[in-house]
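Propose amino acids for all 319 sites.
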C-alpha cells in the first residue's frame, strides 16, 4: 500500500474536522491561531541512512532533513525533540560523544534548541525528530497557479551519487568521493531563504523523495500538470564532471531524493525579485519549468523539445 493510500484510506478521516492538520496533505501541522508549526520525521537504519559507521554525520543528515520541512514553509525552526531506539552497541559512549558534538554544531549553525525526546531499547536503530517553529503564516502545499514558473534551489543529484559511493556501486577518486559523501550527509539546506519564501512563492515543498515525486505531491490536489526542461535542472560542476567521465545520463540523477532543496512555484511577475534574491543571498535559484493545465500531460523535455522518460521518479513509501 502506498503511503498516500494509507493516509487517505485510514488516517485522514481522524483529522478532517481540524484545519490545522491541513488534511494530512502537507509536511507540517499549522495552528494559525497560536502561530505554531510542527513537523515530525522518522529515520531508520538501512532505509534512510546506509549504516551507523559515522554517527556524527548521520545525525547531521537527520537534523537538516527534518528542519527543511519548516524551512520550505518559510518558517524558522526554533525547537527540536529527538527520540531514538537502539542498543548498547549503537549508543556506545564513543558514538554518543560524536552525536552530541554534531548536535551542538547544528544547534549553533541553525539557532535551534534541543527541548526533549525519548529513548527506547531496540536492535533496530531509528530516530524520530519533531521540529517546532512559530509564524503568522506559511507557504502551503497545493497552492500552485496556472502558468506559474517552477523553481528549485541549489543543485540536484549530488546526494544520490554520494549514496551510490557509500553502497560501493560507483568508484571515484578520494577527493570527489569525499565531496559527494558530504553532500549526502550534510545537505546544503537553504536557511537564508526562510524570510523570503513567503514573499515570492505560491507553493513549496522540500525535495526529499525526488524532484518529480515531490513536484507531483505539490500539485496532487489540483487540476494542474507540469512541464520541465531537463537542461535547466541544476547540477553541480562535480556531478557534471562525473557524468562526462563515466558517460552517464543526467536524467538518471536528478530525481532520486535526499537533496533537501526547496522546490517552489511563483508568478511570472516575481522573476526579477527572485533573481535579485538569488544574487544578494548567494543562493542558486533556477527556473526549471512551468505549471500548465491538467489537460496537458506532465512532461520533462530535452534540448530538442522532445519528451523523455525517467526510469526513476523518486522514492515511494510502500507498506
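Proposal:
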Amino acid at each position: 500500500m502506498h503511503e498516500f493510500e494509507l493516509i487517505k484510506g485510514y488516517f485522514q478521516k481522524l483529522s478532517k474536522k481540524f484545519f490545522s492538520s491541513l488534511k494530512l496533505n502537507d509536511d507540517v501541522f499549522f495552528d494559525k491561531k497560536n502561530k505554531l508549526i510542527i513537523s515530525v520525521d522518522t529515520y531508520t537504519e538501512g532505509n534512510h541512512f546506509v549504516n551507523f559507521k559515522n554517527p556524527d554525520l548521520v545525525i547531521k543528515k537527520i537534523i537538516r532533513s527534518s528542519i527543511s520541512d519548516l524551512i520550505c514553509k518559510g518558517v524558522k525552526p526554533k525547537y527540536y525533540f529527538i527520540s531514538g531506539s537502539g542498543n548498547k552497541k549503537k549508543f556506545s559512549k564513543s558514538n554518543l560523544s560524536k552525536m552530541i558534538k554534531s548536535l551542538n554544531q547544528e544547534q549553533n549553525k541553525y539557532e535551534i534548541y534541543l527541548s526533549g525526546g525519548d529513548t527506547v531499547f531496540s536492535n533496530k536503530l531509528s530516530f524520530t525528530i519533531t521540529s517546532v517553529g512559530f509564524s503568522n503564516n506559511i507557504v502551503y502545499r497545493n497552492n500552485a497557479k496556472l502558468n506559474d514558473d517552477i523553481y528549485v534551489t541549489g543543485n540536484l543529484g549530488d546526494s544520490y551519487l554520494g549514496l551510490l559511493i557509500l553502497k560501493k556501486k560507483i568508484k571515484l577518486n578520494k577527493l570527489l568521493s569525499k565531496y559527494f559523501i558530504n553532500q549526502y550527509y550534510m545537505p546544503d539546506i537553504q536557511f537564508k531563504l526562510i524570510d523570503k519564501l513567503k514573499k515570492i512563492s505560491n507553493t513549496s515543498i522540500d525535495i526529499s523523495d525526488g524532484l518529480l515525486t515531490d513536484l507531483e505531491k505539490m500539485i496532487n490536489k489540483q487540476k494542474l500538470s507540469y512541464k520541465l526542461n531537463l537542461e535547466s535542472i541544476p547540477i553541480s560542476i562535480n556531478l557534471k564532471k562525473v557524468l562526462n567521465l563515466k558517460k552517464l545520463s543526467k536524467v538518471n540523477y536528478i530525481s532520486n531524493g535526499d537533496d533537501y532543496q526547496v522546490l517552489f512555484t511563483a508568478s511570472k511577475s516575481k522573476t526579477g525579485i527572485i533573481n535579485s534574491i538569488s544574487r544578494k543571498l548567494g543562493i542558486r535559484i533556477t527556473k526549471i519549468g512551468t505549471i500548465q493545465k491538467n489537460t496537458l500531460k506532465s512532461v520533462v523535455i530535452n534540448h530538442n523539445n522532445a519528451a523523455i522518460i525517467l526510469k526513476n521518479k523518486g522514492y515511494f513509501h510502500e507498506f
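The first helix runs from residue 3 to 15. Residues 3-134 form a domain with the 60s Ribosomal Protein L30; Chain: A; fold (CATH 3.30.1330.10).
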